[in-house]
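Database export, one record per block. Field names are fixed; values are copied verbatim from the stored entry.
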Amino acid sequence: MVRRKLHFQNTSLRAHASPAGIPATADDYRIYPTYRRTATGTFTGDLKVVRTTDDRVIFPYDGAPVIGPFETALEAREAAARKGAELVEADLLNPEP
C-alpha cells in the first residue's frame, strides 16, 4: 500500500490579507505569544510573529533577544505579547520586503 502525501497551501491567512501584499493594519499580522520554563525554574517569553500578507516570519530572527527571565509564566507570556505588538508597530512603519 502506498500512502500519498497531501499538499495544502496556506491560503487561510492570506484570505484576510491586503491585496497588494503590503501590510496596512495590525490585522495583517498574527502574534503567537507563549512561555518556556528554564532549567533554573524561571520563565522566558516565546514569541512568533507572522505577516499574513506574504507569510513572512517577522520574529524570531537570527540573533533575536531572549524575552525574560521572569518569575511567573503569566509575566513571560504578557512580555512576549507586548514585544509582538511592538514588532508589529515597527513593521507597519517600515515594512521589510
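Remark 1: Residues 58 and 96 are 9 Å apart (CA to CA).
Remark 2: The two ends are 45 Å apart (CA to CA).
End of record.
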